[in-house]
């Protein structure tokens, strides 16, 4: 067993009136490290002054801080500003700006407009159909 385990066991078994171990077992504490340990015990942290409570400092309310940093909705003011001006950009300029901002990917391209098909007219007139009926069916 190590000396520290033996010492702890003896401390548990000693009489309640006695607090210190016999002088023979305490010899391990003396030595070069004893001075450092004593210095550490001596310089134990004492309760220090709270630096947050400086004289003259005002304690801020958490609710006031929350309201100060809360996001503000500017929608109404922005809408009034946008509706106030009646300047409308030229359609060609608008198209140019949109074309510049458009990417090269196919998903960024606008749908292609299909060319309007002209209604296909027939080559034959109504008279041609009547003439064909007379010749083919024999009707007058």
Automatic annotation (TrEMBL):
Pfam families: AROS. GO terms for molecular function: enzyme binding. Its main location: nucleus. The keyword Cytoplasm does not apply. Keywords: Nucleus. GO terms for cellular component: nucleolus. It is found in: Nucleus, Nucleolus. It comes from the Eukaryota. Residues 1-56, 98-122 are annotated as: Disordered. Belongs to the AROS family. This is Active regulator of SIRT1. The lineage of its organism: Eukaryota, Metazoa, Chordata, Craniata, Vertebrata.
């Amino acid at each position: 067993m190590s000396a520290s385990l033996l010492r702890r066991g003896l401390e548990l078994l000693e009489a309640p009136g006695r607090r210190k171990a016999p002088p023979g077992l305490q010899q391990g504490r003396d030595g070069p490290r004893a001075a450092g340990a004593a210095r550490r015990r001596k310089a134990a942290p004492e309760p220090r002054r709270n630096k947050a409570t400086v004289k003259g400092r005002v304690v801020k309310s958490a609710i006031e801080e929350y309201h100060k940093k809360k996001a503000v909705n500017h929608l109404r003011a922005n809408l009034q500003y946008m509706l106030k001006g009646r300047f409308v950009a030229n359609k060609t300029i608008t198209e140019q700006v949109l074309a510049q901002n458009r990417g090269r990917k196919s998903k960024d391209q606008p749908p292609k407009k299909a060319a309007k098909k002209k209604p296909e007219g027939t080559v034959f007139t109504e008279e041609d159909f009547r003439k064909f009926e007379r010749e083919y069916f024999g009707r007058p």
